[in-house]
Amino acid sequence: MRILLVEDDFHLANGLKASLKHGGYTIDLAETGELALSAAKFNPYDCIILDLGLPDLDGLYVLKQLKRQKYSTAVLILTARDGVEHKVAGLDLGADDYLSKPFNMEELLARLRVIERRLGTHSSFMICHKEVTLDTRSHTIEVNQQPISLSRREYMIIKSLMENIGRILSKEQLENKLYEWGEEIASNTIEVHISNIRKKLPINFIKTVRGVGYVVSKN
């Protein structure tokens, strides 16, 4: 899942970014409301973590603009404003969740997993298909109940495909889930990752649809 983190506190933002990356997410950071609106316009985010106390625009105004422009991106408000009126205002404007600072990182990760389940096709943190079982809490994958070793990006690719069983994901869609702003992407990066993953999974578990992308088929 690719996330836009909108937070102007330098130390909190960088700590959050590191923790979320460790949790298997791809993170872009915006320090202002204007940058957040611009980033949301041009990038396909799955979720936006939004602080309300931004230096240029009020976070509720940013949320209102996001919803006015009909972005389907989920929004989790993360803010020091813990009054009931702020929570009500944020939720009424279309936020999917609201977490007050200070917060526990494990709780934030759990709330993100809930959002992922809403966005995906699976209602559990365990995704089981044929001989493969993926656990989104522990970031582990088993084949015939035997654990296999994957790099962070290999895990993110197979997780994206298993969350969309039967749906073809293009190379560009997979790149968008794996890479942050400014990261250099070699032209064959996805192909190399897919090749490495296939060596560890059952034959034909991931299928190539030539000229379109990759899919974990339903059958």
Automatic annotation (TrEMBL):
Gene Ontology MF terms in the entry: phosphorelay response regulator activity; transcription cis-regulatory region binding
Entry keyword set: Cytoplasm, DNA-binding, Phosphoprotein, Transcription, Transcription regulation, Two-component regulatory system
PANTHER family per the UniProt record, alphabetical: REGULATOR OF RPOS (PTHR48111), TRANSCRIPTIONAL REGULATORY PROTEIN QSEB (PTHR48111:SF35)
GO biological process: one example: regulation of DNA-templated transcription
Domain Response regulatory as annotated: residue spans: 2-116
Membrane-crossing segments per the record: none
GO cellular component: cytosol; protein-DNA complex
Localization in the cell: Cytoplasm
Keyword presence, Transcription: yes
Name of this chain's protein: XRE family transcriptional regulator
Key word Cytoplasm present: yes
Residues in OmpR/PhoB-type domain copies: 124-218
Residues in the DNA-binding region annotation: 124-218
Modification type 4-aspartylphosphate: residues: D51
PROSITE patterns the record matches: OMPR_PHOB (PS51755), RESPONSE_REGULATORY (PS50110)
